[in-house]
Structures are given as structure tokens and as C-alpha cells.
Amino acid sequence: MLNWAVRYFPILRVLKRHAVGEGRILEVGSGCFGLAHFYRGQVVGCDLSFPYPTQDNLLPVRCSGARLPFADSSFEAVVASDVLEHIPPELRRQVISEALRVTRKLAVFAFPCGGDAHALDEGFLQFHLKHGIPPPPWLQEHVQYAFPAKDLFEGFADGWTVESYGNEHLRFHDWVNHGEISRYWGALFRACLRFTPRLLEAGLRLTDRAPFYRMIVVVTRRTMERCRNNGRPRA
Q1: Which of 37, 42, 83, 234 has the fewest CB atoms within 10 Å of its CB?
Q2: What is the DSSP letter of 84?
Q3: Is residue 24 a part of any domain in this protein?
Q4: The total number of structural domains that make up the chain
């Protein structure tokens, strides 16, 4: 749960800063909970499967992020949190393009980035294997491909503004990963998130310092005219 809070609290701040409010939001790769666990409004969540009952305010849609079954500019914002690293490198640009196609205002992408972050997850996988702990599927997928980088977003400049910043110190991420294996620490993290969310968010801001585990990239439309033309200039 603390891992979720670390990456979703900054995304919530981005949505608030851009006055998304309680508008129609899509999360690519939401799983059964995702952003909807933290966001008050309804979230349309797309994923390949939903193996458990979903969050009450999550509307699940089974589909691939590389081919979204929505019309252009269907959502006020699109979020893809810790998704791109699970996608084969040759499909990542397509997922980004689809997210930009269906958003009216902005898209937020968060993903582990860099060789140090990848090495950290490789070490966490070895920890599981050494101690006979079944590794979670997400961790096995993390080490399958190289992590995404900011250069994925090159070529989308026409009609878009791209900004990026780091999220979560590497060692803090490693500490949280090991802590959430423990029932005691996992229960403590859940209690903090439930009863003291504002205090927890303030504390987590202190962990946003280099070297970072994750990069957050925010892509916003420059004009409504570009919105109507899906980010492309008219011929």
C-alpha cells in the first residue's frame, strides 16, 4: 500500500494543479484498484484482466493500452502509473500515442527509470529467490526489459508540452519493498494510509530526492485547437 501511495500522491497533485477536478479520467493498467483507491471521482480503468473485485469507483474495461476502445479526446486526463516498464519496448510508443489520442487535457506517465533502479529490482528478485519467497509477477516483469527513459516522449512536441521530474529515493523504495513483505509493516503502512493520509503525504514528499527510482512525465495539450485535431496541425 505504501508503494501505491508513493507514486499516486504526486499524480494526484498534478491532477489538482491542472484543475482536472472530478472530470472523466482514464487509467491505463489500473489493475483492480489503482488511482481509484485515492481519487474521489470515478475512474475508467483499462487492463488485460481484473482477477479480483474492483474498487467501487473504478469502471473496469478489458483492453490493451496499445489499442484503446475510446474515441479521440474522450477523457479529461489519462494516467499510466508504473505501466510502461511492463510493456515490450517496441509497443511503448504506441501506448503513449494512444493515451495522448484519448485525452483532452493531459496525460501523466510514471515509471521506474535508469540502470540503478533496474539493478535494485534485480536485487529484490534475488532476495525472494534466496529466501524461498515466491516473487510477485510485477517484479518478474520488471527485470524482463530495460526500464523506459524520457526519450520515449521525443517526437510528441508538436502541440504538447512535456515536463518531467523524479519520484522516490532509490533506497527508500528498496526499504518499502522489503517492509511490505512483513505482515507487521504492511499493516502499519495500511493504517497510516487510512488514518493519517495528509501526514503520510507530507512525509513521502521528503523521499522525492535523488537518486530517484521513478520518473514522472506530464504531457499537456497547448491549445484546444490542437485538442480538436488530436495534437496535429491542420494541413
Answers
A1: 234
A2: G
A3: yes
A4: 1
Burial of 68 (0-12, 13-18, 19+ CB in 10 A): buried
**Largest separation between any pair of C-alpha atoms in the chain:** 61
- What pLDDT, in 10s, does the model give residues 151-175? 999 887 678 999 999 999 999 999 9
Range of the domain at 6: 2-224
Q: What are phi and psi of 119, to 5 degrees?
A: -65, -35
For residue 107, the one-letter residue type is A
Q: How far is CA 63 from CA 6, 30, 96, 204, 224, in A?
A: 26, 11, 15, 33, 28
Phi, psi (deg, nearest 5) at residue 79: -120, 135
The pLDDT tens digits of the residues spanning 53-86 come to 999 999 999 999 999 999 999 999 999 999 999 9
Q: Does 230 map to a domain?
A: no
- Is 146 domain-assigned? yes
Inside any domain, residue 145? yes
Angle between helical axes of 183-195 and 170-179 (0-180°, round to 10): 110
* 25 and 35 Cβ atoms separated by less than 8 Å: yes
54 touches 33 (CB < 8 A): yes
Q: Whole-prediction pTM value?
A: 0.90
- Domain CATH code at residue 14: 3.40.50.150
